[in-house]
């Protein structure tokens, strides 16, 4: 064959059926290039890309050779001079397309793009900015250590080849590569069928697998050539597993997905206690910032403690303490501005009223004038209602929870009762000794409540949330109205659950209940909200300012359904014909326990918890199940010595879940310490029903619930039926 002559081939597209562009077509036709083995061995050879887009055909005097394109061969591709007078097709095509299967060239292109002064070097600050441009998360402590390792010249800067080494060390994932190669036919890529097999067998996708696989390739595959082949490289595979679709949290449940047309009492409602406090309950600072933070976090029930203030203006603070004071009107203004920033669903303003009638009228005036149409002051349809409206019905509305003169029916019929004389506040003024701490019933400390009149103006602002004293479940079943709500201390709630759990669940299927922390929690600590949710209590009020496992559970439950602050209770907690006892869940109809298997594979770039120079964490992972008492469990992996960058466990933890609809799963990473309490590193909590099976990443959160990228865990999850 004349090396200068180009044979004619009918080239239209890759064998995959994807249409090729002009550059790719010229590569199918082929060209003559010089093959160099040494300074003296330089031979002209004719090269042609095969129709599979992954192999090269070339001819030497003795034989025809077909060479498979791999990352290794692509990485060595470089521009070479052509022999004088040799005809050639576009070298640009070869230079552009081949390296797209090689991550090194992609990295080098980014390096050159960021190298503004063209000196071929970058310091750590420039590298950090480049990684942000590449959308690569990093822990600065780990990245700096790898930067120093990659700086072979010890110049304090990285050249392009050193940056490639740094990037590969930063993103190296042998654990993911092992999974990739298990399903890859050639160890280099996942063809469409390979990816479909992985999605079916590991990720347990059933319907529309081919369409979903193609969507993943289009969304996460960085190589245009691989996209044309309908294939996924390892880099695309890693990007997919690191994305929201590869997260343990089912992305279909992140957005609003539940029925929002059920009565208000059929939902768990994200609720705050003493929202105005930023610190403890005795000397803490009061601020409207507490309301802003809670509302932005998706809280849908906030609380105010109102007392007579100077110049006729009601104030908000924790009465009989040294907490600072803020004006009630400022709280209402903030409520009007921030109530619907995070969610359009209704906000309940729970008022602990200690004001005189005169200042109650001022409160009503502020509520009406500042909130305007946002404040719900009458039933939605103008008729006597027969049940609570839904969150959907109440979108954009603020509901007042408090004492009310007479019933809703009387107000609708124009009957006006005398101003209420009695207790206008729900909560005890001072601490009631918690039964769980002191079982001697004789030890009680109470301050006598003052008897106050309730102003009609403030009473008229209460519609669907009339506060009433709780007598008994039997009394409530006979006499209570759907719009009445009772408040319980945490200790009384636990007592009711122990003694009449199923009756409590039925009570909460008909009307709202609110649970608040014991007065002994002067440090603003929290009780475990899971116990209260197990009984169907809707408004479980927590101190949002206090981080810890309790707020992790609250954030975990309400992280689903669009973070809207309302979660639909399970069917067996809404149906008044069913009997569910959280203490004996196996007795309910439809009891179907599940087995949860979690293989904790590895961790990535875990944050440093000890600021001491040179300290490295010894991480372990604990998986906790929070739910009905029968489901409460926790197990741990072993700890890994001195490795916070890429610890590997491959430890499997097994659990039985009796009531999956109520269970929450909390993943906790700690720094093991054999002489003292382990240090907290990160956590992630989610509802059991939101777990995606298969190989998944868990993106860790800090103690206060904020993201700490790129810290994560890599796990494999399996959920199977036991009955």
Automatic annotation (TrEMBL):
Q: Which SUPFAM superfamilies match?
A: C2 domain (Calcium/lipid-binding domain, CaLB), EF-hand, PH domain-like, PLC-like phosphodiesterases
Q: Which segments constitute the C2 domain? A: 576-702
Q: Where in the cell is it found?
A: Cytoplasm; Endoplasmic reticulum; Membrane; Nucleus
SMART domains, sorted: C2 (SM00239), EFh (SM00054), PLCXc (SM00148), PLCYc (SM00149)
Q: Name the cofactor(s) required for activity, per the record.
A: Ca(2+)
Q: What Gene Ontology cellular-component terms does the record carry?
A: endoplasmic reticulum; nucleus; plasma membrane
List, in alphabetical order, the Gene Ontology terms for molecular function in this entry.
calcium ion binding; phosphatidylinositol-4,5-bisphosphate phospholipase C activity
Q: What is this protein called?
A: Phosphoinositide phospholipase C
Question: Per the UniProt entry, what species is this protein from, by scientific name?
Answer: Cyprinus carpio (Common carp)
